[in-house]
Amino acid sequence: MVKTATNPKPANGLLAEGRAWLRKVLAKPADAPTERFIDFCREKWPRRTPSGDAVVLVNLFPVAPSMFCSAYVANHLATRLGGRVEAFHFAGAMPDVTARGYAAFGAECTLTSASAENERSLAEALAGELFSGLRTKWDVVNLAVEGLRVGDQIYDTYLRTFNEPTVLLTDPRLREVIRDALLIYFAVRAYVAGHRVEALLTDDFSYLFSGIITRVLFRARVPIFVVMIGQPFYLVQLDPEHSGPGPDGFGHGYPVPVVTRYYEYPATFARLPEDLKMPALAKARQRLQARLAGEEDALVRMAQSTYGAGGARLFPSLGPPRVLVMLHDFIDSPHGYRSILFPDFHEWIHFLLGHAQETPFAWYVKPHPASADPARSKMTEANRKALDALRQRYPKIHFLPPGTSNRQIIEEGVSAMFTVYGTAGHEYAYAGIPVVNAGDNPHSAYPFNLHATSLDHYRECIREADRLTVTIEPAAIEEYFYMHYFHLAERHGAAVNPIDERIAAAPEFASRLSDTAMFDGMIAGVTPPREQGVHEYLSRFFDRAGLPKKL
Asked: What is the average pLDDT across 234-257?
């Protein structure tokens, strides 16, 4: 456990540096659509004196639809609680237009890393102490501050920031990430001590920049909500009890919605009205079969279908049993779920291939599709280097191109597929292929995958990859698919969207999230009936969440 100052100074607003930064940001001009959004917000939500001292915290997020929807939700909450809206930002420099846009609807940024500047020397000293004490990668994962686990987020932030496939224990940049984590923790702790935070609205809850504040506020029993943009529009409340075993009881893996915990999918589905279950399974079956037939599916976040027609034959027609390994993006968040058998994807694949090459099977590795994405040049290059190292170290292992068709792999036949927690877990199972996961995963409540519980268990699965026994029932996979991809939106979505449905449901919506030109269309779609419908949805949602009405 990290020892910290016993009497932290409360953060009563911005430090002088923070105030100067805010004045500078607010003075800069924005583009024309953002200026119109700012005018819209100022007219709709004029400055008012709150009746109480409650604070609704919002994270600054440079996505136009998020800004638009968050303006409605934050001000609804502030009115309900009799308080005010404030914003936080820890992820480096924020675009000026974003800060001005949030400030226009009342969410001025009052919480940054600068809020802990008076504890920088303490953060530097503790970071040095922690860094010098690291002996294994698990030591990084398990780092905690005042009993609150932050090591997994330090780990993932290091990978993503520096495009490294694994943590380098002697890298001085790791010490800097630890220091930044401590500064964020100190800033949030002091802010909570000096403000009555009654709700948090966030667009993310991973990495240091949103993850630490989420965990601190969970510990303070502050309700946390995520604004889900798109069609339909809806909110989810995050579950503070989502955790694995640990002294803090919080923050093991990403938080999940209170109403839909993936490890309770079967029980949640069982509670659905009987007349909804068969249509739900039919919808899932149709969508799943279409995806495996090669149709593009917006539900699964891939630039194109990974189940295309394929090409020339991949595998010899004769030979030993074939086993497939589906790689993950080495750089992207290995600690997203409650537990994993390895510190990261790099350690996982070296363990797996080291044992695999000792078996009599033909092992094939398919890289993650994102590893070849030219739009993410630095991450792509890092993944390429990691793959080159694997090829050199494991010459007996076959490596497939990242764009290889999963449908072709399934048609040509493999005895099993190995992943950590990949989406393909239910897809390959639907084709009757045993799948072995190496950690907690969204399929963990179902028996249609094997879920390795220890390194010994995992070694056994590798040795017996040609004869694994698993219970695969298509109906269970369809149930999972419905719960994972449809349940939240269908059962908890709003009947009315703050954003005109013609915009939110458009195929290009996801690719335009940072396009400020969207502001004009969203403003043009505002009508009294739409706003009344959104207000009614928010009122019902927060009633169910148990938030008090101060006004």
From this structure: 66
Secondary structure (DSSP) of 16-35: HHHHHHHHHHHHS---HHHH
Residue 31: which pLDDT band, with cuts at 50, 70 and 90? confident
Q: Is the pLDDT of residue 537 over 50?
A: yes
Higher pLDDT, 99 or 13: 99
- At 190, phi and psi to the nearest 5? -70, -40
Secondary structure class of 249 (helix, strand, coil): coil
Give the separation between CA 520 and CA 531, rounded to whole angstroms: 17
Rounded Cα gap, residues 34 and 31, in angstroms:
5
> Six-digit token pair at 78?
């502030």
Tell me the C-alpha distance between 364 and 323, whole Å: 6
Among 469, 391, 464, smallest CA distance to 434 is for 469
Nearest to 100 by CA among 55, 34, 40: 34
Q: What angle do CA 300, 305, 311 make, to 5 degrees?
A: 155
Residue 305: its pLDDT value, please? 64
pLDDT of 164-218, one tens digit each? 999 999 999 999 999 999 999 999 999 999 999 999 999 888 899 999 999 999 9
Q: What is the pLDDT of residues 248-284, one digit of tens each?
A: 444 456 788 888 899 999 999 999 999 999 999 999 9
Provide the token pair at 96. 């000026």
Task: Give pLDDT, residue 222.
Answer: 95
Which residue bears the tokens 């399929």?
443
Collapse the DSSP code of 157 into the 3-class scheme (helix H, G, I; strand E, B; otherwise coil) and give the result: helix
Residue in this structure with the two tokens 């019902």, named with its chain if needed:
540
Cα separation, 151 vs 3, in Å, equals: 15
Sequence-ordered alpha helix ranges (H) in 464-527: 474-485, 487-492, 501-504, 518-524
pTM of the predicted model as reported, rounded to 2 decimal places:
0.90
In this structure, the number of other CB atoms found within 10 A of the CB of residue 347 comes to: 18
How far apart, in whole angstroms, are the C-alpha atoms of residue 143 and residue 502?
46
* Structure confidence at residue 387 as a pLDDT band (50, 70, 90): very high
Query: DSSP string of 471-483?
Result: ---HHHHHHHHHH
Pairwise CA distance, residues 224 & 215, whole Å:
10
The average confidence (pLDDT) of the chain is 89
In three-state secondary structure terms, 194 is: helix
| Alpha-carbon gap, residue 373 to 377, rounded angstroms | 7
Q: Which residues of 267-289 are buried (b: 16+ CB within 10 A; e: fewer)?
A: ebbeeeeeeeeeebbebbbebbe
* Helix ranges, 90-150 (H): 96-104, 120-132, 137-141
Closest CA to 485 of 319, 262, 275, 272: 262
Percent of residues in the chain assigned helix, strand, coil, to nearest 5: 45, 10, 40
- Spatial distance between the Cα atoms of 34 and 516, rounded to a whole number of angstroms: 6
Give the mean model confidence (pLDDT) for residues 1-5.
Answer: 34
First to last CA, the chain: 42
Which amino acid, 160?
Answer: R
